[in-house]
Write a structure and sequence with these properties.
The protein is mostly helical. The chain has one domain: Four Helix Bundle (Hemerythrin (Met), subunit A) (Up-down Bundle), CATH 1.20.120. Helix content is 78%, strand content 2%. The chain contains six helices and two strands. A hairpin with a 2-residue loop joins strand 1 and strand 2. Helix 2 runs antiparallel to helix 5 and helix 3 packs antiparallel against helix 4. The mean pLDDT is 89.
Length: 191
């Protein structure tokens, strides 16, 4: 396996997860101000950007690999799941728990569906759709805003992120329905 820049970006996304987690919980002070969550957000944002960049570069430079194709969605799901659980632990609540359950539950369901469809030789039936990409954009932005937390430019950043997470959860359900609908004919025929 050759270490290409796209693969290094994907590996970097995985490596960023414990760094974001540590920064979220361990106080860091700069010039008398605690900036832990803001540093965590910067690392998280860099990792989230690589979600798009690694695939783009791999296709553009013809550096795709089987390992990269496997690791890319795993890295995305780990980053999202760890950050959602971290946020829920920080501010537990029934509504946030429901949103986290919907988002993580969908990721598990679609991952299992894709694996099953691949075994049938029909993985293209559940390829990433535009709604999945939009959902990811809302989800990644919401999580970043919620990690940042502090109001900025007089804007309630955490609350705005929470609102975006609601939208992401709706898009999550919608995208799951699209994938399940696409796979349903094969699911119904395969007893």
């Amino acid at each position: 396996m050759k270490l290409t820049l796209p693969l290094a970006l994907t590996l970097g996304r995985v490596a960023a997860i414990p760094v974001v987690l540590a920064l979220f919980y361990i106080p860091v002070h700069i010039a008398g101000h605690e900036v832990s969550r803001q540093l965590a957000t910067v690392i998280y944002a860099a990792a989230a950007i690589t979600d798009w960049l690694d695939g783009y570069l791999a296709r553009k430079w013809n550096q795709t690999s089987k390992f990269g194709a496997f690791l890319d969605p795993v890295a995305d799901k780990l980053l999202v799941a760890v950050c959602l659980v971290m946020l829920l632990q920080d501010q537990p609540g029934g509504m946030l728990a429901a949103l986290v359950a919907v988002i993580i539950g969908r990721e598990i369901t679609i991952s299992a569906l894709r694996e099953w469809m691949a075994e049938l030789g029909a993985r293209t039936h559940v390829a990433v759709s535009w709604i999945g990409k939009v959902k990811t954009g809302f989800q990644m932005t919401a999580i970043g805003m919620m990690i940042w937390e502090i109001p900025t430019f007089h804007l309630p950043i955490y609350q705005l992120g929470y609102g975006l997470l609601f939208i992401a959860a709706v898009l999550t359900i919608w995208s799951m329905a699209v994938y399940l609908r696409a796979a349903w004919p094969l699911m119904a025929d395969n007893n």
